[in-house]
Amino acid sequence: MIKVQNLVKMFGDFTAVNSISFDVRQGEIFAFLGPNGAGKTTTIKMLTTLLQPTSGSIELDGLDPTRKQTEARQRFGIVFQDPSLDGELTAYENMDIHGVLYHVPHKARVERIEVLLKTFELWDRRKTYVKMFSGGMKRRLEIARGFLHTPKILFLDEPTLGLDPQSRNQLWTQVKQLNQDEGVTVFLTTHYMDEADRVAQRIAIIDHGSIVAQGSSQELREQTNTDSLEEAFLALTGSSIRDEKANSADQLRQMVKMWSNKR
Amino acid sequence: MSAIYILWLRELKRYVRSRSQIVASLGQPLLYLLALGFGLGPVFRKAGNGSYLQFIAPGVIGMTVLFSSVFSGIGLLWDRQFGFLKETLVAPVPRIRIMIGKALGGATVAVVQGLLVVVVCLAIGFRPSNVAAIPLALLFMALIATVFASLGIAIGSKLENMQGFQLIMNFLVLPIFFLSGALFPLTNLPKALAVVTSVDPLTYGIDGMRGALSGISHFGMLTDIGVLCCVALALIALGSYFFSKIQL
Predict the structure, then answer these.
(1) pTM of the predicted model as reported, rounded to 2 decimal places
(2) Which of the residues A110, A124, A232, B106 has the least number of beta carbons within 10 Å of its own beta carbon?
(3) Residue B165: band (very low, low, confident or very high) from pLDDT cuts 50, 70, 90
(4) Domains of chain A by range and CATH?
């Protein structure tokens, strides 16, 4: 479903993603793990047409997203690391705009919005402005929205960041359920190893722009002679802390935190 | 088409729902009208130019439309990283339609905002030379709004951070307003100022509006419309080019 070969992204003379290759099978839940600044988000941006690769090839459901942008976009849904809902609109309106942008016919749109909002337990709050939602509710709404146009692939970039264990648990249960029911392929990144261990069938670990290992959680543990995925992760990526330089997006993120009382 | 419509509608809904902002945004125009309109009125009259309130009202209406439309576009800086816009950037819709929906929405809101200021102007004593002037003034408002919503999008697509926003505000948006002839007549200006005002697109918008509302136009309204249309086309092209090149 996703086929990546020798993908490279350079920013000036800095190599953010260094010739990575991997395959994600149809219907699979695939976790992409790595320390801060390892190249996870950069890779997702290239897969989702938001960033042009420097070199290498990508295939999404047989399509090259750098050439067939519109067709590729119709086939995936994405939940970004930073929220992308309109707080001045209601939950329902946010869903509805998404449906229009993704060419979901009116009747199907109405039905599917209802089903998804009920699945993610937001139906009763559909007329509430999104700015009144808690962090967990916003996340659920974003994921529900990502499923609206029945994508073949769903990208989740650190979807559980800042959520409490209850919300995280509920969120993954719902994502797993939809993965089984609709056969959607899920590509996720997270910092919580227990989540990756629980939901993902296969895992790739990226560090300094290169993939250092991939396989099932068990394979990674065996390969490193460790007892848990977290230990395997540390064995593969080392225990030094990555201090990134803040970029303009981080600065803006800081301002968002300052100015908004809720996430 | 449906994408353009829904994005246009979104901007309108957001505007209608932010009532406190609507009221707040009338504060600045009101201050200009009252403080400058009445404060500089006696001097202006002594110089033989008639009522300053009559003169400045089209300028203040133009200012409102300028600020409202340009900021709707510059808001992209924020919106593309932390807002809803990011969602539209991965949607299976050509970017140019997203840009047009956004620009039309921003421009419509700016015109509505301008109309509110027209009402304020009428309330404090401004009188247009004839009633038929309002539709013509509306046309100029729409042109100003289109020009600057597109300019805002072009800038918002390129800006990297909030420091850039300050630079744009102080070295582009405010000069566009102050050097437009919104506050002073264009006749007998020092050479340098005359040149600067003549390359400022807002000059033509306000001149046209003054022509419509007060019957005094420096360049002639047809020239004004022609210049504004050309600038609008150029900026729509520039805005959609930069917008289509946004990478995150």
Answers:
(1) 0.89
(2) A124
(3) confident
(4) 2-259 (3.40.50.300)
